[in-house]
Amino acid sequence: MLNAIVWKLRTGAPWRDIPERYGSWKTAHERLRRWSADGTWDRILEHVQVHDDAVGEIEWTFHVDSSVVRAHQHAAGARKPGTVKKGAPRVRASRSLRSRVRRSGGPAVG
């Protein structure tokens, strides 16, 4: 199961695409979720760091990724307060106001 979790995290593929040789994707997902919740991954990392630092064979290198993740496509172009779309009327009368204007033939009062 550990190989299934590592494969999924390394490739970024969906859980259902885990190769059959690693076993059930549901089991791998459940194990990752459970180990994340109970601190198993933290203990494994701590053990590996202490062991490798003691041996002195591994150099720890950290990389910072500057990728940008966009919001949902509909969140990208929201109107800001006080802005008007080009060609849009600045003031829109309500439906009831328009109907009162049409019936009376003049401006609606009150």
How would you characterize the overall build of this protein?
The protein is mainly alpha-helical and 110 residues long. The chain has a domain at 1-10 and 32-56. 45% of the residues lie in helices and 0% in strands. It has 4 helices and no strands. It has helices at residues 2-11, 25-38, 40-55, 95-104. The longest helix is centred in the middle third of the chain and has 16 residues, at 40-55. The chain is extended and about 70 Å long. The mean pLDDT is 77.
Give me some keywords for this one:
110 residues, 45% helix, Transposase_6_like, IS402-like_dom, mainly alpha, 4 helices, Insertion element IS402-like domain-containing protein
Describe the secondary-structure layout.
Elements: H1 2-11, H2 25-38, H3 40-55, H4 95-104
Write a short abstract of this structure:
This protein has 110 residues and is an all-alpha fold.
